[in-house]
Amino acid sequence: MLALYLLGCCWLLTVTAQLGLPGMPVVPDRYNSYGFPWNRTYLPTEPQQIHLSITAQGESAKIQFATHQPIQTAFLKYWSKDSSILLNTSHTQSLTPDTGYRYQVGSVANSLTLWSAEFEFHTPSSQDDFKFLAIGDLGVNNAVTMEQLVKRASHYDFFALTGDQAYDLSDFDGTKGDQYMNFVQPLFASLPYLGVVGNHETAFNYSHYKNRFNIVPYQESNSIDPLFYSISYKSLHLISFSSEFYFDPNAQTKYPLDWLEADLDLANRRRHLQPWIVFMTHRPLYCSGNSSSCHMPSVLSSLEPILLKHKVDIYMSGHVHNYERTYPMYNSSLQTKSYENAPTFFQLVIGNAGQPEGPSDFLPGDPPPWSANRFSGYGFTEFKVSLSELELTHLSVNTDGSLGKIVDHVVVSKTK
Ligand SMILES: [Fe+2]
């Protein structure tokens, strides 16, 4: 929005735009000013941007942090919440199940040791079920859900993020990415990250994304690339698969699809242990948003046959900035309105965590027959997963940042 004013002798040009968009600076707003001083000045060797991820079944954790200047040694100090014994190691060793841990990271440079604040996370409980959080499309500005996510982090075992962060991680030589990683630290340092790359992370051959998130368990899932990995966690097999190579004319398509087929083959051999397969990527296959992003034939024709063949349960994406759940469907056609022993996967769009581009609306008129529920406000999704059931709840967050209401709830079940 541009406005031109004549003030006495001079014209004054006022530029009002949605700050925090790609190429625009980040500014304080009501959603990123809730208490954590993420935009302060850090000492040159002080740990910042702390975040963690996990390996299969939560057997170990990987923690990463940044400093402005080189350090001689990076420390990781972690201990059980019930123990006073300190372990000093650069990576966690095997962790004890059903245990809460505290940790700190530290840096040593020129005889100066700087420790971070303490953070907490927990390993898988001894119970069959667990909860995880799922969000998509999160910026530093207009991050409407962030305060609620931080408040609820202890409810979950990890969080999935369906791509597009910071808008953009690479802006201003990566300093917007630094601001973002400090802004999200209260969530990312206490809840393991299992996310996927989006189109706002493709710059410089994905280097800002790959370097900041190289702690995802890709090597543990027989992948050579953090853009493609999977993890088995209790009764869930979660796949993180970049959709962005479909839009890069120079990208190799053979490796991602070969890796996906091999991973799904293995997952199906273990289906008695992990009956639920959730496929996470950035771009949707089907949606009824008012967006050209709901029609991407190259992605659909490539992925849909593979996911059907391997009996994937859920296709979860972001990119479109709203929430939508489909019924089980394929080939653009509704298959059933039942989620019990469904013959095909259904799809979720969860790109409504809050980012500077704002929400996306839906096409006017009635929803298509395969669209089960849709919501154009802000929110987040939680999954409760057990061997026989997967319960999905989408909660809204109001524009004042307060928790809204349950806008969607469905139980998916398998009896055979
Ligand atoms: Fe996107």
Bound molecules: fe (ii) ion
The CATH topology of the largest domain is Purple Acid Phosphatase, chain A, domain 2
Helix content: 10-25%
CATH secondary-structure class of the largest domain:
Alpha Beta
For the sheet with most strands, the description reads: 7 strands, mixed
Describe, in plain words, how this protein is organized in 3D.
With 416 residues, the protein is α+β, with helices and mostly antiparallel strands. The protein folds into 2 domains: 48-121, Immunoglobulins (Immunoglobulin-like); 127-413, Metallo-dependent phosphatases (Purple Acid Phosphatase, chain A, domain 2, 4-Layer Sandwich). Helix content is 14%, strand content 33%. The protein is built from 6 helices and 26 strands. The chain has helices at 146-152, 175-183, 185-188, 203-212, 254-269, 297-309, and strands spanning 2-7, 10-15, 48-54, 61-66, 73-80, 87-89, 100-109, 112-115, 119-122, 130-135, 138-139, 159-161, 165-166, 193-195, 228-233, 236-241, 276-280, 314-317, 323-326, 329-330, 333-334, 346-350, 371-375, 378-385, 389-397, 403-413. The N and C termini lie far apart (57 Å). Residues 1-17 have low confidence and may be disordered. Bound molecules: fe (ii) ion. The site of fe (ii) ion has 6 residues, from loops.
